[in-house]
From TrEMBL:
This is Acyltransferase. It comes from the Bacteria. One of its GO terms (molecular function) is acyltransferase activity. The chain crosses the membrane at residues 9-27, 39-56, 68-91, 111-130, 142-161, 210-232, 239-260, 272-295. It comes from Phocaeicola acetigenes. The keyword Cell inner membrane does not apply.
Length: 313
């Protein structure tokens, strides 16, 4: 899939911005129900898209090189996040650093937002290896999908190195691609989707992506995003697609800036809604993430960190 699907870049833009918004502690604490609502669909949708886009047509050396260049920024930033969490008051941080703790968090139980990269590498590698090993005896799509789901479930429920809902959403994206289903056709566009979405979100029991209601909300959120996309034009559309093309950069560097935004809160005491803080902080996080990546590109460091001469697309 060499040609980018712009609709998917737009969806990635929407979901990465929602991730930033509710990684702002002030906003998450101020709007806990909204946070729970967004957490129901934004990362499951991201995982669906990731599963749909993962490529297993590469030769082993090329595939594992790709995984390696995901692991490098993951390892650097996860290690930095561990150190930061041991010093600063970060939720779910580590109390004391040691080689054992570092290895456990890096390879098995990552901290912070970097769990997504861990899940991406784990699921992609499992999918690739199963396709290579089972190519002769798992020719049927149904049998392959069942075995892959079982493998991912074992990694989650037996080995406890991933989240079962997360890996199954990734699996869902793989199956869409494996069955030759168009992502944008499978998720039907309709403005009417807002009505069942509101109805489902009114019941707190549905705010769990592993329930039937939660799965419906994931579907409807993606569908509504695809419904909005054709109405974008000009610079707004270009900006959204640029953000969507560079979500890897944002995911990697955004935690640095979301922590810094805590110092902004006192400057926005005049706005009890928190919306001014939200807008400024999201802009700050995006600009800071892009600035670091741009500097790395200009200083020829990207090839050592990302495995590319130029990361920003």
């Amino acid at each position: 899939m060499k040609k980018r699907i712009e609709e998917l870049d737009f969806l990635k833009c929407v979901f990465i911005i929602l991730m930033i918004v509710f990684h702002l502690v002030y906003i998450g604490d101020k709007y806990p129900y909204a946070k729970q609502l967004v957490y129901t669909f934004h990362m499951p949708a991201f995982l669906l898209i990731s599963g749909y886009l993962v490529s297993i047509s590469k030769k082993p050396l090329v595939f594992f090189r790709t995984m390696g260049w995901i692991f490098v920024p993951y390892a650097v930033m996860e290690s930095g996040y561990m150190v930061m969490s041991s010093i600063l008051p970060v939720r779910d941080g580590v109390d004391e650093l040691s080689l054992t703790v570092w290895a456990d968090k890096l390879f098995l139980h990552p901290l912070g937002p970097y769990w997504y990269l861990h899940t991406l590498m784990l699921c992609s590698t499992t999918y690739y290896l199963l396709d290579r090993v089972g190519r002769r005896w798992l020719k049927n799509t149904l049998s392959f999908s069942i075995v892959l789901a079982l493998c991912l479930a074992v990694e989650s429920t037996v080995l406890h190195i991933s989240s079962l809902p997360h890996v199954l959403y990734f699996w869902g994206g793989i199956m869409l691609r494996r069955c030759n289903l168009s992502f944008t056709a499978f998720f039907k566009t309709s403005w009417w989707g807002i009505l069942p979405f509101i109805w489902l979100s009114a019941n707190e029991q549905n705010l769990n992506c592993f329930t039937w209601g939660g799965m419906a909300m994931v579907y409807l959120a993606i569908s509504m995003g695809l419904t909005v996309y054709p109405f974008l034009s000009g610079k707004l559309r270009d900006a959204c697609l640029y953000i969507g093309r560079n979500t890897f950069v944002i995911l990697v560097f955004s935690p640095i800036f979301t922590v810094i935004t805590k110092s902004f809160v006192s400057f926005f005491n005049f706005d009890t809604s928190g919306m001014c803080f939200l807008i400024v902080s999201v802009g700050f996080v995006l600009a800071g993430s892009f600035l670091i990546a741009w500097c790395m590109d200009r200083c020829k460091v990207s090839r050592f960190f990302w495995g590319k001469e130029r990361m920003l697309q």
